[in-house]
Design a protein that fits this description.
mainly alpha
Length: 73
Protein backbone atom coordinates (compact mmCIF):
# COMPACT_ATOMS: atom_id res chain seq x y z
CA UNK A 1 0.00 0.00 0.00
CA UNK A 2 2.64 2.64 0.85
CA UNK A 3 4.25 2.04 -2.53
CA UNK A 4 1.02 2.97 -4.37
CA UNK A 5 0.71 6.27 -2.48
CA UNK A 6 4.36 7.08 -3.18
CA UNK A 7 4.02 6.31 -6.89
CA UNK A 8 0.80 8.34 -7.16
CA UNK A 9 2.72 11.32 -5.75
CA UNK A 10 5.22 10.79 -8.61
CA UNK A 11 8.04 9.71 -6.35
CA UNK A 12 10.17 6.60 -6.56
CA UNK A 13 10.32 4.07 -3.74
CA UNK A 14 13.23 1.70 -3.32
CA UNK A 15 12.57 -1.02 -0.79
CA UNK A 16 15.60 -2.85 0.56
CA UNK A 17 15.66 -6.36 1.99
CA UNK A 18 14.76 -6.18 5.66
CA UNK A 19 17.77 -5.68 7.95
CA UNK A 20 20.33 -5.77 5.13
CA UNK A 21 22.75 -3.16 6.43
CA UNK A 22 25.07 -3.14 3.42
CA UNK A 23 22.26 -2.01 1.12
CA UNK A 24 20.96 0.75 3.35
CA UNK A 25 23.25 3.76 3.72
CA UNK A 26 21.46 4.95 6.87
CA UNK A 27 23.01 1.99 8.69
CA UNK A 28 26.50 3.32 7.92
CA UNK A 29 25.40 6.75 9.16
CA UNK A 30 24.03 5.34 12.42
CA UNK A 31 27.22 3.33 12.92
CA UNK A 32 29.25 6.54 12.63
CA UNK A 33 26.92 8.30 15.10
CA UNK A 34 27.14 5.42 17.58
CA UNK A 35 30.94 5.29 17.28
CA UNK A 36 31.22 9.05 17.96
CA UNK A 37 28.86 8.72 20.94
CA UNK A 38 30.72 5.75 22.45
CA UNK A 39 34.06 7.55 22.20
CA UNK A 40 32.78 10.73 23.89
CA UNK A 41 30.01 9.59 26.24
CA UNK A 42 30.35 10.53 29.91
CA UNK A 43 27.61 8.06 30.94
CA UNK A 44 25.01 10.40 32.36
CA UNK A 45 21.69 10.96 30.63
CA UNK A 46 22.10 14.71 30.24
CA UNK A 47 25.58 14.27 28.75
CA UNK A 48 24.28 11.51 26.48
CA UNK A 49 21.63 13.83 25.07
CA UNK A 50 24.27 16.44 24.24
CA UNK A 51 26.67 13.88 22.83
CA UNK A 52 24.07 12.30 20.54
CA UNK A 53 23.17 15.69 19.07
CA UNK A 54 26.86 16.41 18.49
CA UNK A 55 27.30 12.97 16.95
CA UNK A 56 24.43 13.47 14.50
CA UNK A 57 25.93 16.77 13.37
CA UNK A 58 29.47 15.38 13.24
CA UNK A 59 28.87 13.25 10.15
CA UNK A 60 29.64 15.44 7.15
CA UNK A 61 27.63 15.53 3.93
CA UNK A 62 30.70 14.24 2.12
CA UNK A 63 30.79 11.20 4.40
CA UNK A 64 27.05 10.60 3.99
CA UNK A 65 27.48 10.67 0.20
CA UNK A 66 30.33 8.19 0.53
CA UNK A 67 28.04 5.88 2.51
CA UNK A 68 25.37 6.20 -0.21
CA UNK A 69 27.89 5.39 -2.94
CA UNK A 70 29.09 2.35 -0.99
CA UNK A 71 25.51 1.13 -0.66
CA UNK A 72 24.88 1.55 -4.41
CA UNK A 73 27.91 -0.54 -5.31
Amino acid sequence: MPEIVILQARHEAIFYPKFHCQLNCIEYYWAAVKRYTRERCKYSFSELEKTVLEAINSVSIKTIRRFADRSKR
